[in-house]
Protein 1
Amino acid sequence: MVKVLFVCLGNICRSPMAESIFKQLVQERQLSSQISTDSAGIQGWHVGKSPDRRTLEVLSEHNIETSHVGQKLSVADLTTYNHIAVMDEANFEAVYNFYYENLNATPPARKLFLIRDFDPEVEGVQEVQDPYYEDKKVFRKVFDTLRRSCNALIDYIVEEHNLTPEEPAEDEYSD
């Protein structure tokens, strides 16, 4: 099982949105038995809370549901997950330092990266904008950015880990 963790600052906007988008795309590609995902925050401000209402509204606009509750990045996450995708440079630096301080090692580039490293439309800044203090229009922009990036990340994971889609279950009533 390939495990992917999305990380942002508080785990109520960007990372749970990325987790939910990624999970839907994995299901659509029939890879659910081979790829799992979750999300966490650098800070513990929102542990146990649902995602921001605007995150939930934008996900709902795309028929994506989530049952995620906020959680803080843990030392166990550093070894549990094959890939840790962060939203911005500050998150990257925090996770990098957390990794180094707790595992006395530098995280491999294939393990820790900015999610927009996979965005085919990236220009300039490779960060996902933090929409927390913005209106829903920015949340929609974040959704589009994350969808593109997650699609390309799945392509990478499929190739890197040599995955193939599951065969659809046969309908017992079909001819």
Protein 2
Amino acid sequence: MKLSKTEEQLMQHLWKLDKAFMKDLLEIYPVPKPATTTIATLLKRMIDKGFVAYKLYGNAREYYPLVKKKVYFSKHVNGLIKDFFNDSPSQFASFFTKEANLSKTELEDLKRIINSELKKK
């Protein structure tokens, strides 16, 4: 299951904070800040989707992520590769290295990463 753009933005804040009350989440947003009801609605949807949970302290809820950022984005990237690159990581890598306008240094860094992974296999 995927998050909407606004849910993903809220999730980014929650990953950054690790756990947060509503006031903490509202504080982290830039001006103009979203309405409390908007954040509450997003949190409810994210709870229903299984991305967020909360602990109750009296009437206050402390929200925390159930899904790690790395796991979420790994699935997101793998879905992108499947849907747009015929399930071919090579096609994705080719597109990325050509279209991302990477510098020579960035390409050399990628090469080092790939070589490091090859050594592990």
Protein 3
Amino acid sequence: MKLKIPPVVVLAVFAVLMTAVARLLPGLTWLVPGRLIIALELAVLGGAISLSGVIAFRRHQTTVNPMAPAAATTIVSSGPYRFTRNPMYVGFVMGLMGWAVFLSNVGAALLVLGCVLYLTQFQIKPEEQALLTQFGSPFADYMVSVRRWL
């Protein structure tokens, strides 16, 4: 893998950066009616999506450790993996979107896209390459049939 930074740490770094941007650039703040409720809904939904990915991996008795994709024992294509190859990351990003809504700052919200791009380049693509090496054409077929994000 290109970088060995756990995705949860990446998420936390982006959340801190978003907070800093919101404080440093208050002119980019906008009024979001019901922002607390929307933020909580996004966070809870994101948590549920991530958890459903973990549960699917556990049911198939394969690793949930994103730092060791070579330890995977099977391709999971059921549950949320029918709709996205990365439900855990989708859930993380939804939580970050909730944080952006709570902060109500355009600059902070743009960092969510930065997080998606970072995770795609430095976490997901290397994971996919490791899984292609390990599982070959069955994983390639899965990649063709299910989107990376949504």
